[in-house]
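Notes to self, Poly(3-hydroxybutyrate) depolymerase:
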Amino acid sequence: MSMMYQAYQNHMDLMAPWRTGAASALKYLNLVPQGVSDKLFGRLAASLELISRSSLTYHRPAYGIDSVLVGNRELEVTEEVTFATPFGSLLHFKKENSPEQPRLLLVAPMSGHFATLLRGTVKTLLQDHDVYITDWHNPRDIPLHAGRFGLEDYTDHLISFLDKIGPRAHMVAICQPSVSALAAAAVMSEDNHPARPATLTLMAGPIDTRIQPTKVNEFARSKPINWFEKNLINYVPVQCKGAFRKVYPGFVQLTAFVSMNLERHIKQHIDLANHLAKGEKEKAEVIKTFYDEYFAVMDLPAEFYIETVRDVFQEHLLPQGKLMHRGRPVNPASIRRMGLMTVEGEKDDICSIGQTLAAQDLCTGVRAYRKVHHMQAGVGHYGVFSGRRWNNEIYPLLRDFVHVNS
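result:
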């Protein structure tokens, strides 16, 4: 078990006064009237900005969705925690004076970033749906006495959240939690649970990673599970509320993400410094906004990470009919009277074509006329649920699918 996380936190704490000092100096520098040696002050401001930003944050950013256009009316949006456990909240984006719309649970991944990464997805869905989201909490802030959180606990949370929302809600899972979403739908269907979802939509999810394995899939299979436990799992530092909880640290995950596109990230920060030095505030703000979200990292509970790697990416339990939930087999064939939609991206290098579609073959109890599959041309992983093609091409299909099955 590595103590790297503790060493990293100690270093960050040691450097905190420098970052605070740079941020304070930057505030005073911004008071200098424009035209007074712009070039000198611009370079100094750029340097101070980069120093003040040389840290990750472990707090969830704001969703920042204050209003949304419904039809031709701008409606106020407020956030309301409907239900919470130590590990996550069922967050409702409540619209004032909204017409009745289909209730929808958006299932966010636990993958090193907060659910706010789906901010754009939420804003689009809010136009035509009553939206809830799985707002996961950072394990480094969860005391050890709250217990463990594994793959089965994730599935249990989805069942509890749907139960709180009530009958005939719709569930949309983004990426990694597609396995738990399908498991929850199967368990609830088998139990004839009154709050089982009316539709299940799986977007770019690893249902069967044996199909056209990506580099991510190959890495997961390249080493034994005890290698992941030994090399990637750390204790939460003593300075945190969740001290001594075992986690896969967010900063380690982020380092892996950044290293995959290192040149691009370096160029972005060089561009940021240049924009700041030239006083190009709007261009700088675009880059700063992206990295404010990208550098807001969340740890993963060790149990959840290890079980996901083992059960989903190494042993492929779900597509082989071997996945268990609380001692009982997960049987996707038990799903009936439910709509099933799968969405994939042509250029997805994280979850390749065919891996999500596999759910269609597993759910033999769903009638053919209730099944929909869409492969979106020209998009990578994130393009499946964010950006122009999501808004203009994928979302209208999802909206129609939900409304037909409401």
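- Residues 3-60+249-293 form one domain.
- The first strand starts at residue 67 and ends at 70.
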